[in-house]
């Protein structure tokens, strides 16, 4: 089985590694020039300077659906600890059916009713604010998660959707920049037109409605694995044509989400390895959607470790490392979101069971919160290999360093004292910095 999964990675190893190395350096790093001056602007030389990256601009994320959802405090604290040590981006659940249990009573405020895998927004925002984690809301609209109480009359249902968008933007619009606006619209059943609540062009209608309220936010379109990673049809694939159609109509799609859930049995995944575990296919799809000029996110990632055996966990880690290297390197890719942090906590299944999506054992942590090999792989990539720190023992008039895009702490030792400043090396910002001491 492992040979089949790795077949295309191994066959394309030389090309894959060459492109990844070139594109990672070209798209994720830049040279920066650093000057140290006194208050009169005169160069200060000979001092010791340390430059240490403290955060990434690239978004490494995961859903936060299990924040404080465990039955014991030890696991809740472990979840909080492991999440912040790895990620800088968290997904907050706003599924309409679970967020507004009764008509006109959304779960806002400090103490809303509890719903499993749906921690309240205030809890998530508090945790993320304390730990420098950006948040994305997911989703504003998904046809599979409409409330049971939603009226069948289209005007009545769209009035309530308008109210939902207005309330969410008013309450969270200035605290949550990114939102999955329309989720998985291409998976709606072929008889969807019988649903009187949805107009034929509902994705465009909802994007326009959302843009009216979320004026300073980014609205994502998001769709499933089979649709997003189909390079056979290319620009004739349903997702590409849908996005192109929306943009040609002037619909404000700000970013593109491409799910990557390997929700297949081992036998099914062997047959699909030529599509999903194939570097050429992955690059082709990113190039194709990247041609729109919009940010791309690998929006929901599940790589299975069937049964949680040691062999399958090591295979999960090996495949994940190659996938992250490929995705991270691409010019238009802006974020990667692993989906479930902990095994036994996935959707459509009782807590701790092997049912539903838990079957795939696609977490980074075991159910007892111990790290799997894949957790260590991501921690090494994000916080070691893709991390910049540099020390200059005797500062010249100017120093050039090459760093990953992100925020840096700069420490200058002068006359036995340490002066600390911060700089931001960004893809589109300044590349020359002056630290005044």
UniProtKB/TrEMBL annotation:
It holds the Pfam family Glyco_hydro_10. Its EC number is 3.2.1.8. It catalyses: Endohydrolysis of (1->4)-beta-D-xylosidic linkages in xylans. Keywords: Carbohydrate metabolism, Glycosidase, Hydrolase, Polysaccharide degradation. InterPro entries: GH (IPR017853), GH10 (IPR044846), GH10_dom (IPR001000). PROSITE patterns: GH10_2. GO terms for biological process: polysaccharide catabolic process. It is an enzyme of class 3 (hydrolase). This is Beta-xylanase. SUPFAM superfamilies: (Trans)glycosidases. GO terms for molecular function: endo-1,4-beta-xylanase activity.
């Amino acid at each position: 089985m492992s040979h089949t999964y790795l077949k295309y990675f191994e066959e394309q190893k030389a090309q894959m590694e060459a492109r990844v190395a070139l594109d990672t350096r070209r798209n994720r790093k830049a040279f920066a020039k650093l000057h140290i001056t006194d208050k009169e602007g005169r160069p200060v030389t000979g001092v010791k300077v340390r430059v240490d990256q403290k955060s990434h601009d690239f978004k490494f994320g995961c859903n936060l659906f299990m924040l404080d959802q465990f039955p014991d405090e030890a696991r809740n604290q472990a979840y909080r600890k492991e999440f912040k040590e790895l990620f800088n981006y968290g997904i907050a659940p706003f599924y309409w059916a679970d967020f507004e249990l009764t008509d006109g009573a959304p779960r806002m405020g400090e103490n809303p009713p509890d719903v499993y895998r749906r921690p309240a927004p205030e809890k998530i925002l508090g945790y993320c604010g304390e730990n420098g984690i950006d948040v994305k809301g997911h989703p504003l609209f998904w046809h599979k998660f409409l409330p049971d109480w939603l009226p069948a009359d289209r005007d009545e249902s769209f009035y309530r959707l308008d109210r939902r968008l207005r309330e969410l933007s008013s309450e969270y619009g200035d605290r949550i920049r990114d939102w999955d606006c329309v989720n998985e619209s291409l998976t709606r059943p072929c008889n969807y037109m019988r649903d009187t609540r949805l107009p034929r062009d509902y994705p465009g209608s909802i994007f326009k409605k959302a843009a009216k309220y979320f004026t300073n936010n980014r609205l994502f379109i998001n769709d499933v694995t089979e649709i997003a990673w189909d390079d056979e049809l290319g620009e004739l694939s349903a997702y590409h044509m849908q996005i192109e159609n929306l943009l040609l109509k002037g619909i404000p799609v700000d970013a593109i989400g491409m799910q990557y859930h390997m929700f297949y049995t081992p036998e099914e995944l062997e047959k699909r390895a030529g599509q999903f575990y194939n570097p050429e296919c992955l690059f082709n799809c990113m190039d194709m959607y990247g041609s729109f000029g919009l940010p791309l996110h690998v929006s929901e990632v599940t790589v299975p470790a069937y049964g949680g055996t040691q062999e399958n966990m090591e295979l999960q880690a090996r495949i994940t490392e190659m996938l992250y290297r490929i995705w991270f390197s691409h010019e238009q890719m802006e974020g990667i979101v692993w989906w479930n942090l902990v095994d036994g906590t996935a959707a459509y299944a009782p807590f701790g069971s092997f049912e539903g999506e838990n079957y795939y054992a696609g977490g980074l942590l075991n159910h007892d919160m111990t790290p799997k090999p894949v957790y260590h792989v991501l921690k090494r990539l994000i916080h070691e290999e893709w991390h910049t720190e540099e020390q200059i023992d005797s500062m010249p008039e100017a120093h050039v360093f090459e760093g990953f895009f992100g925020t840096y702490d700069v420490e200058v030792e002068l006359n036995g004292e340490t002066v600390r400043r911060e700089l931001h090396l960004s893809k589109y910002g300044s590349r020359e910095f002056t630290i005044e001491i």
